């Protein structure tokens, strides 16, 4: 795997190169029981999240804690000088959220650099944009990222506030999508929707009370799909910044769908629409 990163180890305890560590896992002495990353760092866990981060050339990696089985599960080999501290599974459990499935891999790295909305809007206009209005659950946002990457969205847009931070929980739910899908964080979501409109995108807000279905509202050209938080839905100001409001044609037997499920269905509809 080609990776860019410092590969720095713990400043108080330098890790030996990965290829030199083939013996029995030792007991860790640093970070025991904290479950928190170092200052300014992000701690990721699980094979898909860690593997994608290691392959991402835009990630700066600080340190990898792992079991031998965890490293062997990765697609490709680590560089010989990559900083790894071998550990037992029980030790890794102390580095992550309670009951988090670390799969023998915990990576500490720097957060990803900021991405500007204007940059992603200059890309392929056939790829949809996902806009989230105060969706705060990291599991939901991670799952939406996964669907967005799967259906070739160009970016996900959230606010700086009232949105989850980059974290191991979000990355695990995203299953690698955090590393490949541009995540634009903005101060003012309404202003961002204005910029999206100026770039030629038709903005469709999803609301179960709408008259039109998403299929009826989808244009042939560039589209931005806007979803609000579960329960409250989109805020009024955000609704007013949409060109159309649409619903998914679900059965009356169910009042609504989880926001991540709704996003996946909307992305599928956008990916399979007739554009000619």
UniProtKB/TrEMBL annotation:
Locate the compositionally biased regions of type Basic and acidic residues: 7-17
The record's section on CDD domains has:
SpoU-like_RlmB (cd18103)
Please list the residue ranges that the record marks as compositionally biased, kind Basic residues. 19-30
According to its UniProt entry, the protein's GO biological process terms are: methylation; RNA processing
Which keywords label this protein? Methyltransferase, Transferase
Q: Which superkingdom is the protein from?
A: Bacteria
The RNA 2-O ribose methyltransferase substrate binding domain, residue ranges = 43-115
Positions of the region Disordered?
Answer: 1-40
An example of a GO molecular function for this protein is:
RNA binding
Q: Which GO terms describe its cellular component?
A: cytosol
Q: Which Pfam families match?
A: SpoU_methylase, SpoU_sub_bind
Q: What is this protein called?
A: rRNA methyltransferase
Q: Which organism is it from?
A: Novosphingobium barchaimii LL02
């Amino acid at each position: 795997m080609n990776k860019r990163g410092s590969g720095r180890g713990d400043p108080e305890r330098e890790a030996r190169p990965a290829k030199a560590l083939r013996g029995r896992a030792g007991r860790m002495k640093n970070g025991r029981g904290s479950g928190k990353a170092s200052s300014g760092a992000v701690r990721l866990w699980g094979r898909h999240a860690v593997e994608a981060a290691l392959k991402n050339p835009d990630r700066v990696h600080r340190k990898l804690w792992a079991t031998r089985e965890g490293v062997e599960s990765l697609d490709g080999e680590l560089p010989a000088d990559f900083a790894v501290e071998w550990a037992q599974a029980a030790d890794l459990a102390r580095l992550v959220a309670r009951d988090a499935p670390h799969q023998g891999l915990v990576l500490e790295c720097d957060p990803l650099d900021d991405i500007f909305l204007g940059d992603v809007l200059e890309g392929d206009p056939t790829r949809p944009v996902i806009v989230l209005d105060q969706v705060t659950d990291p599991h939901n946002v991670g799952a939406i990222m996964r669907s967005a990457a799967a259906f070739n969205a160009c970016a996900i847009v959230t606010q700086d506030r009232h949105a989850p931070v980059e974290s191991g929980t979000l990355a695990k739910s995203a299953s690698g999508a955090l590393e490949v899908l541009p995540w634009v964080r903005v101060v003012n979501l309404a202003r961002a929707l204005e910029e999206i409109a100026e770039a030629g995108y038709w903005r469709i807000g999803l609301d179960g009370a709408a008259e039109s279905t998403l299929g009826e509202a989808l244009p042939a050209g560039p589209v931005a799909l806007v979803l609000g938080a579960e329960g409250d839905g989109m805020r009024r100001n955000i609704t007013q910044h949409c060109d159309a409001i649409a619903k998914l044609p679900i059965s009356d037997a169910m009042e609504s769908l989880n926001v991540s499920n709704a996003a996946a269905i909307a992305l599928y509809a956008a990916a399979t629409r007739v554009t000619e």
